Amino acid sequence: MGIITISREFGSGGRELGKRLADELGYGYYDREIVTAIAEKNKLNEQYVSYALEGGMFRNFPVHFGRTFSYSPALMAGESRLFADQNKLLRELATAGNCVIVGRAADVILREFRPFNLFVYADMPSKLQRCRERASEDEHLSGREMERKIRKVDMDRKRYHSMISDIPWGDRRGYHLCINTTDREIKSLVEPVAAYVRLWLEEQGQ
Amino acid sequence: MGIITISREFGSGGRELGKRLADELGYGYYDREIVTAIAEKNKLNEQYVSYALEGGMFRNFPVHFGRTFSYSPALMAGESRLFADQNKLLRELATAGNCVIVGRAADVILREFRPFNLFVYADMPSKLQRCRERASEDEHLSGREMERKIRKVDMDRKRYHSMISDIPWGDRRGYHLCINTTDREIKSLVEPVAAYVRLWLEEQGQ
Fold it and tell me: Which uninterrupted H or E stretch holds B186?
């Protein structure tokens, strides 16, 4: 039974790699699906759940929310419940097994399941390029604004991670393999990475 | 024409991986050979050359040399020449091509050759275990002393690296792939890593 977690820098192609890896291995794939499930269960807006789970609890609202914001205890309790729901759901997925989970700090939350933890990263020009190619809601952003967004998203991930783990987000010690996707086509990486992961699963008797 | 550099934590099995990778790819392998060649050219003791090149220039002599030591300008000039020799030799090797070079900060020194840079690491218990298994000159060290040695060797590498590169030693951004060898058998890693490297070489048109 294999569990693969993928942590990634924004724009590094980690999500695509995760999806393709899941296909290659015949594993389940979970990313947005987790947010959707939690939003439905709590009858909440998906975007809000996503925002809250990506560290909203630990920072002020971003500028485009119009004003800075102090959390009320009720809101804090609400978001704590979202985290509890997320962790519960992650454990259910892990128990069912054979899955690739992108983000959600699953590497830390599921550590007693001994997952294979992958970190995906790239240099800034490469991340900007990828973001431009897939641009949808970010289409209006200038290169500079996009770079700021990339740094911000990763900073939030780092901050959230630091609250639940001693090993910093992106620190090699927390991962089994760290892959630099600068100038790489994600598609072509899938096979050797899958081979590496398969070997690890075998060695672990999973 | 492929150049693969391997940087590694002491005891992580990086040297073994490098050797096996070179065998697998049919590449030349250089590690101690570089020290030997420089020692011969300069008619110096190999151990001294090794010590000097591993950061001796930037620190006091270690305790087992019996006393702390202030460098004389003559000695400094001598060691600078060793570095110059090493860098020249590394460039010659890179120009000849198709080689695996372990250590020597070859990732930085050869950067204009665009090598594939691999970083190999492991957790402390795993590194201690590996050191115990291969123990020779270190046989007399207790576990605690061995751990101190591991940290010291890596600290010297880190310090040396910081003098020639903006990216810290062991920071993922400086490498194409970072491999955690904790609880792994090095032998079994060779094939998937070689596949990954081959793909990269192909994509680079090397």
Answer: helix B186-203
Which residues in chain A are contacts of B175 at CB distance < 8 A? Answer: 178, 180
Rounded CA gap, A108 and A86, in Å? 13
- Shortest CA gap B67–chain A (Å): 36
Instruction: Collect all residues from B whose CB is shorter than 8 A from any CB in A.
Output: 119, 121, 123, 170, 172-173, 175-180, 182-185, 188-189, 191-193, 195-196, 199-200, 203
Query: Quick one: how many helices (H) and strands (E) in chain A?
Result: 8, 5
Residues of B in contact with A189 (CB under 8 A): 196, 199
Alpha-carbon separation of residue B130 from A57, B138, B157, B186 (angstroms): 43, 12, 19, 11
pLDDT in tens, A100-152: 999 989 999 999 999 999 999 999 999 999 998 887 666 788 889 999 999 99
Question: Min CA distance, B184 vs chain A (Å)?
Answer: 8
Please state the ipTM of this predicted complex.
Answer: 0.83
Strands B3-8 and B99-102: parallel
The model's pTM is 0.86
Length of chain A: 206
Alpha helices in B105-142 (DSSP H): 106-109, 124-134
CB nearest to A180's CB, from B170, B176, B180: B176
Rg, C-alpha atoms of chain A: 17
Torsion of the alpha carbons at B28, B34, B40 and B45, rounded to the nearest 10:
-140
